Amino acid sequence: MTTGHAIHTPRRAPAIDLALILAACILVYWIGLGSTGLSLSEGLRAIPAWEMMDTGDYLVTRMFGEAYFRKPPGMMWAIAASSSVFGQTEFAARAVSAAACTLMAIVAWWFARRWFGPAAGLAAGLAQALTPFLWEAGRSAEIEALHTLCIQLASLSVLDSALRPWCSFAKSYLPPACLLVGLLGALLTKGPSGLPAVAGSVLAALWLMRGAADLGKPSSRSSLSACLWVAVPPVVASVVISGVLYTWLARSYASLPTVTQSPGEFLWDTSKLGSILSLPLVGLAAAFPGSLAVLAAPSLWVRRSTDPRVAAVVAIILAPLASLLLFTAAGVSNPRYTMPVVSFWPVLLGGCFAVAPTAPIARRLRVAGVALSLLLVVAGIAVSQLSDRARAGNGGRGSGKPAGESIARAIVESDLGLVSRELWADGAVEARPEVLLYARRAAALQGLRLSPRWSSALLRPFDPPSQALVLVRVEGAVIEGGDRVTDGRPVLWTGKAAKFDLILLGPRRIP
Fold first, then answer.
1. Is the predicted pLDDT of residue 170 greater than 80, yes or no?
2. 170 with 102, same domain?
3. What is the pTM of this model?
């Protein structure tokens, strides 16, 4: 899509553009990646992955022995694969997300270059790498970055099927393969939660194909068959992959008491009506700087019938807007769930560079793009350093590593004569599972084999054995488990993990 009224820019080797994009990704996502302990919900992804490696069971995800299926196992498998190379470390757990954000920048560069030319590719790649909404996700052992990469592959591949009649790579096998890989990866990491973004790309692609037929654009297929070619593959692939995948997973967990979570918990809630209705505006703000391209929508809409490249850019504008409306219709209130929509905007921004109406405007856009990129690189480095400090601190985002190490010291200093002991918990696992992980590691360094055990109250009453150590969570004046758990047990340690108060109880004393 580089013919017509394109603004000519100096040619650069693709390797130079890739090097600039990769440099931005390294500065924002990779430096200091493993310098702090796990925090927030990172342990919910990393610990099951490492238990897979320790037990050799890669079908059932477990958290300290409890079957755990609040999310599909895709992220756990990815962390296990990374840890097989880098070891069971914080760097290995977070490298999955950093790699996903890096690949997202490359994917945005590739598609924008394929559709609009080299200048558009570089702009899209840098905009994707420097999207602030992704900075935290790209440095965390969480599922959002990997899930967004998968949705990006699927969504841009759908749009590519509509743009293909005007592209030089008409018979490429890569976009269909990306569609299948993207859908499979998305369903494995976060279930169907990202499918509204794919649906938005289908609607935009159908609009584009209808417009192509109206303009008499060259195509070997009728308008109806072309629309079916765009819409049917993602729908069929989603249904087939979901059916096969979840049937297989259901059989794996069928005989096990399993901690699960219903997707309905994240949908319509009338108490969050304001957040639901404002979701499109929040989603646009979260997609900065790529969403700046929406400002060009009115002028592009006027030009859509005179230049197929402009019509393509308008379609890419419609895709994220339709996706945000679909998320709103589903009752989503948390902006994090719209993160997959972010992947449209950088390519769109690159397209705006390509369809600039005059050379002076194109030059001004390039100058503004360079200045904004440099500013965002500096901001990204600063934000990553502040985030690492927060993880290392004692605030709400702090890691549970100090608490875990203190618990190990308290057990050793209690002089219980232990060589091996189970450490039971429930609420502490729900709050900060990494506390038990670091307690086990610190105890091992002091010659104590500590075996954390999660007994979820969602499945059974929390009733640890008398000889076990117990880590309970305190909510105000209420101690988890009450007298049934605490009676006869000495207090070995009290402390905090982030904002959560915890108490370590010893084995029950026999009267």
1. no
2. yes
3. 0.89
